[in-house]
Structure formats: structure tokens, C-alpha cells
Amino acid sequence: MLIADSLTKEYRSGDRALAVLRHVSFTIPHGELVAIVGPSGSGKTTLLGLLAGLDTPTTGRVILDGDDLSQLSEDARARVRGDKIGFVFQNFQLIPTLTARENVQVPLELRGNNGNAGRNGADGPRRLETTPSARASELLGRVGLGDRTEHFPTQLSGGEQQRVAIARAFANQPALLFADEPTGNLDAASGARVVELLESLNRESGSTVIIVTHDATLAARARRRIRLADGAIVEDTGILA
Amino acid sequence: MTAPLLRLASLAWRESRSARRRLLVSMSSIALGVAALVAIDSFAGNVTRSVHEQSRTILGGDVQVTAHRPLPAPVERWLDSLASRGVPNARLVSFPATATTPRTGGTRLVQVRGVGAGYPWYGRITTAPADQYTRLQTSPVVLVDPALLIATGARVGDTLTLGKGHFQIAGTLEDVPGTTEFSAALGPRVYVGQRYLASTQLLGFGATADYSAVLRLPRNTDPTRFVAPVKQTFNAQQIQTRTVTQTEQSTTNATNTLASFIGVVGLVALLLGGIGVASGIRAFVARKIDTVAILRCLGATAAQVLVIYVAQAAVMGLIGAAIGALLGVAVQFALPALVHGLIPVDVTPSIEPAAVLSGLAVGGWLALIFALRPLLALRTISPLQTLRRESDATVLRREVRDWRQLLVTIALIVSVVAVAMARADTPIQGLWIAAATAAVVGFLALSAELLTRIARRVLREGWPYVVRQGVANVYRPANQTRAVILSLGFGAFLLATLYLVQTNLLKTFALDATVTGANVLFFDVQDDQVTAVDSLVRAHGFRVVQRDATVPMRISAINGVPVAELARDTLGRQRREGWALRREYRSTFRDSLLGGERLRSGKFFDPHRTIAPADTGEVSIDVGLADNLRIALGDVITWDVQGVPIPTRVTSLREVTWMRFEPNFFAVFQPSVLRDAPKQYIVLADVPGPKNVAAIQRDVVHRFPNISAIDLALILSTVQRIVDRVTTAIRFMALFSVAIGIPVLFSAVAATRRDRIREGVLLKTLGATRAQIIRILVTEYALLGTLGSATGVLLALGGASALLHRVFKQPNFSIAVTPLVTMTVGMIALTVGIGVLAGRDVFRETAMAALRDGG
Predict the structure, then answer these.
(1) B218-266 pLDDT tens trace
(2) What CA–CA distance (Å, rounded) separates B477 from B456?
(3) Which chain B residues have a beta carbon less than 8 Å from that of A102?
(4) In this structure, are residues B345 and B253 in contact, taking their beta carbons and an 8 Å threshold?
(5) Which pLDDT value is given to residue A124?
(6) What is the C-alpha separation between A167 and A135, in angstroms, rounded?
(7) How far off is chain B from A241, nearest CA to CA, in Å?
(8) Which residues is B653 bridged to in the sheet?
(9) What's the gap between Cα B203 and its chain centre?
(10) CB-based contacts of B668: which residues, under 8 Å, 6+ apart?
(11) What whole-number distance in Å separates Cα of residue B127 and Cα of residue B175?
């Protein structure tokens, strides 16, 4: 379960404090598919950064499965990310020097767990007796890139790169997956493919998926939508539901 | 290595894929420094081994006993008793003389070696025609250096006269073990049987000759222990004992001193390389911001990130050091040919594992420690950069000053100081080198800071756009001012220092050789010959420039304490140098100072003052000697002048310019003290033209065979040969420092290249022409180049002046303005060239590519 508890984020501009988020609170149960929507500058990306433990709030707390991320050190948050969180970015963020397979392997290797991806989520740790390389190839197969495993990012199309990013995000079978404008850089067909993948992986693995987007079509496919404007929540369909 | 570490190592290896070449180039800045160290250390190792193997050959035996007079009776008795116990000795008498070839009339100052039977016990003197050496013991023949035949126009078979003796030239010397190319430079060697020396009549009173007995010890006898029982007694009688071990040590020491001098340049090269590594890694870190942010998003801890990139840098650093070591080994194999004839052994090059390993270790470590500081910045890259990318400069500016930074900085300083102390001749010298390097770096950093501030203040709206942009590049974020000025300035400093020291030293030789106007020096002129020599020179129409009486003497006591007692006191601050106590002095007397002398303290003799027989006479001492003897004004030195004790009070200290072509003296006596002592003369004459020099030499030697003459032209040509060798070495080192400077400068420019390209492409997108962008780059790099090279050259003026004063003891320092200006302009051109070259991608890249790259 992910809890945002009265999150506020301020940046200093000279001697003035600029509030980007103001007292944002919500709870997302395990396995949900949530869309965070809002216009540019509404604080979506800042909120994603806080929820994923990439940044710390000025005030408030982010609690993931009982751990208050804002109280953890940067390295402890990194370990949490490695164990429980996956990312898909608008600009894919693949490591250009690694092949598709090697990119997917990275989270497994950072954990040093021999490819036995596990998740400390609701259904407890799981062990897969495979090597990181085999696990990466399997995941790439699932996203339809079984024949492109040895290609470098520059040799792949945008849609393919995003699918590699999705395979990487699911390598550790994360409890929580954040997708920042996952279709923003893709054509309609590729975007649709990516969304389908995210949905099916959400269904099959039971991971919570949080998508940040201003694409109304994409947002409509989420079971819950949190709408931000000027750093505050103006709509949360989860509460209404 | 544990499994997680292995996984990280493998990730590090894969991740380094595209950056390997660039990383290797950065880390290779260290390679030339390593090459210098490996080459020098390996060569010194080779020399040490060769000297060890050939040391008996250098000495000609196991022990040599030498005196400046015929060996006294007790020594002869000792040698006889040894001979009866199976320890044979061979005799050797060495002295300068003037040789004449009657057939051609050619004369030449030579070094006579009167050899007894058995000499040398080890090694073989080869001759042309072959096997003539043994004839020396059976007939009045001589073997000569080929240079003598050339100088006098003589041929093998001709007669050669030495003093009153006539000898037939039996052949030329081909290989004399233990000698260098310069051994025969001042006077070609003439080998003659010792038993035939008497016929020359050159070994009378006051003759400058060394008498030696060379011993061959039974196998497995330790020469040091063998001479130990007699050493002290011999020393007291001014008889020198020299063992094969000492010869080995002194020859090795001489090579090591040279090696450590050149090694200092290698060390500085290594430090400059370190700066290059740091600049290169800074550029590398900038390129890795995105990847690190992704890794951090994917759960990598700061330590894991650091391990990945430190591993990459370490491997590349080691490869860079290995390339340097290989280069060093290659240079080492070329060195014996370069120094052939300069050292008294034949050097066989072979790989010295210790030198290679130490080069690898020092280079690898310094590369890593210099890389570590910028690499630490990777720890602080936030995963947020994946969502919201800031500029490289902004991301890297967040570099926190934490204990790790402090620790790495301390480790860096300790490493540099430790390496400098280990490499230098003495630890203090090492500290000086480290401190001087730090001072230069500090100064350059300061001037870079000043430039950024001044550029910010002077920039005016009215200036043309490209100039404004170029000047603004110097101070705005992501500027490269410090990195470029540091590397360029350091290179300019090294180059200009080497150049200034070289030109000033060479100038000293040239100046001193001509300042007195004299070009021929006659020595061993007897008291009753001096007037005749004087007249002879004048009769030819030439000028006698100077005439000095010389009286041989030794110190017998200082302030009433006998020399033997003073020499025993080897402890404490008042320790007097043994050589200064024991040596034989050839002193003179006069009542005025010469051109090359300057009174430092006290008062020079009053010519009108008469002294009563009971008074203590006065003496003026050279300041250097006074320091070595711990003597001050007012002290009383008692001299032993051919058995007569003569006490003198030190009434003045003089500074003597020893490099002048004129007789210089440690001690100058008040005339009345020495006037009646048995003496010889040195006569200095001004004889224009080589023909006249030859004629006057011939006439003087013909009339007075005991007199020897030195021709200044000969000295100058010898000096020139040495100077040429030194110049070549210095030029090599200067080229070397430029060679190091270029990759370092490239690294410095590369550090901000990405930002430059991005900005350039943006400007291009906004309508800037190619010419405008080039002009902006030229303005920026010209500014950086001017300040960097000018600061480096200015620092070099201080550095070179300090080196010349303190190390080379040169009072004068002149600035070679034109070459320095040329050097500065050249450096500026180099900087602009490198800057524009690094920015060429601006023209290659499309606007879209750059903007996409910018995220």
C-alpha cells in the first residue's frame, strides 16, 4: 500500500519559497492502476518523484508498505527502489552503452540476487531460479522483443525502446511501477501497445501501476484518476468511488 | 571477489563500452610520466648492475692506494710485505705533460699514464695494431689516443717527446676499460712503461702527479675489510685508499644523481598527467550523469555507482600506466646508445622488473587518486535527473564537501608528497618539489579566478556580439577557465623553466671563457723559469694577462687543533668536511682581488702594512671552503708548507667565480707570508689565432719541457661537446613536457566540450554562422591561452631564477625575451587550435541531435 500523507514540496527562488505541491494526501491499495493527471506545471512529476522516493518532501510523508520513505537515507531509498519500484519514463532512459538485454538485467545485477527476482509485496518474496540474463531475455520475449535482445538502444525504435524500459521495470517484479508520460514520445500505435503491456503486466503480476500523464485517453483507461492543479488535488475518482 | 561485486564488475565492464577509448585517453595522461620513470629507473638499474659487474675493470684491481707524491717508505714496506704474501701490486703514475712530435712540430697537452707490470689486473686495454700493450714494459714506446695523432699530425712509428724523454709511438689505444668519452677530452692519454718515466725528467719538485699502487687481492677477500687496518693511518698521511666497492658506489651514485635529476622531470610529468586525468574524468563524469541517474532510479546505491566507475577508471588507469611502462622500456633500450661514452661502463639494457612494477604502481595509483576526486561527484547525482534534467554544471556543482572528499584530498596530497619524497634525491628536496608544484598550481588557480572576475567586470554591451560571447564563456557556468589555465600554465611553466635554465647556464660558460681575454695557460712553471716564459710570450708580441705563484700546502691545524683530531669529530653541527681538511691546496699570494673575486666579509690585505716576524700572517679564504671547514673571520689556520708550519689568521672571506678561465684559489695569502716559500707559477697569456697558440706552445715546451700548456679553444670545444649533450637532453625534456601538455590540454577542453557543443548548435539553430561560432571559440581560447601561458612563463621566471641561484649557484639571471614571447604565442596558438578542434562537432551535429541529447 502506498500512502501520500499531506505532501508539500517547496523550492526556494531567491528568498521566496515556491510551493509546487500543497498538502497532497491519498492512499493507493496494492494492485491498482492509477493515473495522475493535470496540466503542465501542476506538480505531477514532482509528485511522482516524491512517491518513488527520488526526492524528499518539504513536509508530509510517503509510506510504502509501512516504510516512511521520507525518513530513509538516499541509499536506503535506493534499496527500496531496487526491491519494490519500477520506472518507465517518457524518454525511455535506457543506458545507451548496454544492449536491450543488458539494460533489463541491470536491476537484477544491482540486487546481486542471481536473477531470483523477488517482491516483498502482498504475496511475499518469490524466487525464480534463473540467471539475470535468462530472466531478461524472457521479459523481452514477453514484450515482443525476443529477437532484439542484443540491440543497443540507438538501434531500436521509440516504441521498442519503451518496451525494453517496461521489461526492465518489471525485472524485479516490483510492487509499484511508475510510468511518467509513457506514451508521450510515441506514435499512436506504439503508445497503444505500451499501454496494453502496462495493463496486462498490472493484471498478471499484481503490481500497482501509477501513470503520470496529460493524455486523456490514457488516463481514461486507469481505474482511478487523481487530478492535480496548481499543486493540489482537485479530483480523485478513487475517493468518489 | 564476492558474487555481488563480480556482478558489479561485469556491469562496469559492459557499461564502459562506448567510453573506454575516451576514458583510456584521459587516464593515459599519466602514461608519459610513467614512461619517464620506468625508463630512468630501468636505465639506472641497468647501470648499477653493469657497474657491479665491471667495477674491478674500472679500477683495474681490487684496491688502489694513491698519493700526490711518491708513495712514502712505510707504504712501500707494507706493499712489499703484501707482495711476499701473494698480494701483488702494479704501479701507475699519472700526470699532465706537453707532448711534442718532432717530425711535425705538433704539441699537445696530454695525460701521461706510466704503467708498471701487471696493470691492469682486470680488464684488457686493446690497441691498434693489436697486442702492443705488453711492449710498454720492454721498450721505450708509447700508446696514444687517436686524438693525439690528429692534433699533432703524428703517425704510428713517429717519435714523441715527453719532457726530455723520446718514445716511439707503437700504436693507438682502442678500448681502455673504465673511461668515458670525456676522459681524453682535455688531454689525450699517453701510456708509457713506468720504468721509462725517469727519462722524461718531468717528475721533479712540484710536479702535479698521482702515484698509485693497484692491488690484486686473493679471491673472496673483502676489499673494505682488507684496507680497514691501514685506512686511518694512510688518511692521516694524505694517502687515499680506494676499493672496488667504493668505485662501484661512487660510479653508481653519480648515475643515480643524474637519474634522480631527470626523474624530477618525470615526476612533474606524472603530476601534470594527474591534472590531465582529473580534467578528463570530470568530462567523463559529465557524460555519465544520465546513466548514473537511471542506475540510481533502478536501485543502485551511491557506493555501487562509485564501485562501477572507480573500477572502470582503475582498469583504464592501469592500462594507461602499462602503456607508459611499455614506452618507458622502449626508451630504456634506446638510452645506452644516447649515453654511450658518457659513463665508464658498457651498459647492456635488460628489463628491470622492479622499475616496471614501481612505475605501474605509482602511475596506476596516482591516476586513480587523481580520478577519484571528480568521480566522487557521481555519488551525489540525484535519480530525479531522470525526470527533470538540469545542466551538467548545475548537477555537478552539487558536489558536496563531505568527509569522503576531504579523505580523498588528503590521500591525494599524501600520495603526491610521498611519491615526490621517494623520487627526489633527499626527502627535503622531495618536499620542496611537492611544495613548488602546489605553489604553481595554486598560483594558476588564483589567476584563473582573477580572470573570471575581471572578465565579468570589463564586459561591455557595446562590444561586438562574438567577442562578448567569447569573453562571457570565461566566467559563466560550465566554464573551463580553471582547467585550461591549470594545464596550459603548468606546461608553459615547465617548458619556460627548462629553457631559461638551459640558456642561462650556457651563457655562463660562454661569458666566463672570454671575460679575462686570455686563451693559453702555462702551468708547472718553475720559479727560475717564469721571467723567461714571460719574456718569450712578450717577444712573440703577445700579452701576459696574469701570473700567479702557487705553493703546495696542507692544513695541519685549525685554531690549534690538529687536523687528525678535527677529522675524528664526525658528529654535530660543527663537523668539518673531511676532503677539505685533508686535500692538498695550491695557494697563492697577492695584495689585490681579481676580477672574478668579490669580498664577502672582512678586509683584504693592506699592501703597505708590514708584519713583524713574530706576527701571525693573514689569509683570505673562499666562502664555500670556509663553510666546509666551519671557519669564521679571526680563526687561525696553521698550514704545512713543505714541512714548515705557517699559522695564518683569516682576515677576509672571498666569493670566487670558479667558472672563469683563470687560476682561482681557495686560499690567498698576504704576500709577505709566502714570498720566500718554494713555489711554481701559472702564467696566463692572450695569444690570438690557433697558429700562434701552437707556435708559442712549441717554443715554450721546447725550451722548458717541464711546462705544460692548456689551450682555451680546446677547453671550449670540450665544454661545447658537453653542452651539446646537455642541450640535447634538455631539448628532449622540453619536448617531453610539451608532449605531456597537449593531451592534458585536450582533457581540460574536453571537460566542458558537451556544453560547448550544445550551446554552439543552439546558436547555429538560432541563425549563427560558422564564422561567428569560430570567432566566439577563438576569442574564448585566445583569452585562456594568453592568461595560461603568460602566467606559466611568469612563474617560470621565478622558478628558473630560484633554480639558478640555489641549485646551480649562478649569481646572474638573464631573460631571453624573444624566445619566451615566441613560446607564449605558440602556446596561445596551440590552445586556440585545440579549442576550435574540440568544437568542430558543432558544425557536424544537427540541431535536432543536440537538442535531443540535451533531454
Answers:
(1) 988 888 898 888 888 887 777 888 888 877 777 777 666 666 666 777 7
(2) 12
(3) 14
(4) no
(5) 40
(6) 10
(7) 31
(8) B601, B621
(9) 38
(10) B587, B588, B589, B590, B619, B620, B654
(11) 7
Whether the CB of B304 is below 8 Å from some CB of chain A: the reply is yes
Tell me the backbone φ, ψ of residue B306, rounded to 5 degrees: -65, -40
Instruction: Indicate if the pLDDT at residue B206 is higher than 80.
Output: no
Which residues in B lie closer than 8 A to residue A110 (C-beta atoms)? 8, 11, 295, 298-300, 304
CA distance B610 to B746: 75
pLDDT tens digits, B123-133: 888 899 988 99
Band (B8; pLDDT cuts 50, 70, 90): confident
Min Cα–Cα distance to chain A from B813, Å: 55
How far is CA B617 from each of CA B551, B561, B640, rounded to the nearest angstrom? Answer: 15, 18, 14
* CB-based burial label for B553 (10 Å; 0-12, 13-18, 19+): buried
User: What are the residues of chain A with a beta carbon less than 8 Å away from any beta carbon of chain B?
Assistant: 45, 48-49, 52, 54-55, 74-75, 78-83, 85, 87, 89, 91, 93-98, 102, 106-107, 109-112, 114, 132, 168, 172, 180
Residue of B nearest to A77 (CA): B299
What is the pLDDT, as a whole number, of residue A185?
81
Share of chain B above pLDDT 70, in %: 87
Q: How far apart are CA A197 and CA A162, in angstroms?
A: 10
Q: What is the DSSP letter of A149?
A: T
Query: Looking at beta carbons, which residues of chain A come within 8 Å of B384?
Result: 49, 54-55
Distance from CA of A179 to the nearest CA of B (A): 11
Kindly report the nearest CA distance between residue A63 and chain B, in angstroms: 18
Quick check: B291 and A97 CB within 8 A?
A: yes
Q: How would you classify the pairing of strands B165-175 and B159-162?
A: antiparallel
* pLDDT, position B619: 92
Sketch the domain layout of chain A as residue ranges.
2-240
Chain B hits for A112, CB-CB cut-off 8 Å, are 3-4, 7-8
pLDDT above 80 (res B758): no
Given a cut of 80, whether residue B739 has pLDDT beyond it is no
Number of cross-chain residue pairs from A and B with Cβ atoms under 8 Å apart: 94
Put simply, the answer to whether A110 touches B15 (Cβ < 8 Å) is no
Up-side HSE of residue B116: CA atoms within 13 Å toward CB? 11
Residue recorded with cell 479530483: A235
- Residue B467: what pLDDT? 83
Please say if the pLDDT value at position A79 is more than 70. Answer: yes
Is B294 an 8 Å CB contact of chain A?
yes
ipTM for the whole complex = 0.78
Cell of A233: 488535488
Q: What is the pLDDT of residue B855?
A: 37
Residue B129 preceded by cis peptide, ω within 30 = yes
Strands B106-115 and B189-193: parallel
Taking the domain A2-240, which CATH number applies? 3.40.50.300
User: Per-residue b/e over B149-167, b at no fewer than 16 CB within 10 Å?
Assistant: bebbebebebebbbbebeb
- Are B432 and B264 in contact by the 8 Å Cβ rule? The answer is no
Scanning B619-711, the segments in alpha helix (DSSP H) are 623-629, 671-674, 690-703
Average pLDDT of the residues in B384-390: 79
Name A66's Cβ contacts closer than 8 Å, sequence gap at least 6: none
Q: Which residue has the cell 531567491?
A: A14
| pTM exceeding 0.95 | no
Residue B165 has pLDDT above 70, yes or no: yes
Nine-digit cell at B693? 697558440
Residue B754: pLDDT over 50: yes
> What DSSP character marks residue B805?
I
Q: Quote the CA–CA distance of B215 and B83 in Å, as a whole number.
A: 9
- What is d(CA B621, CA B624) in angstroms, rounded to the nearest whole number? 8
Interchain contact B15–A (C-beta under 8 A): yes
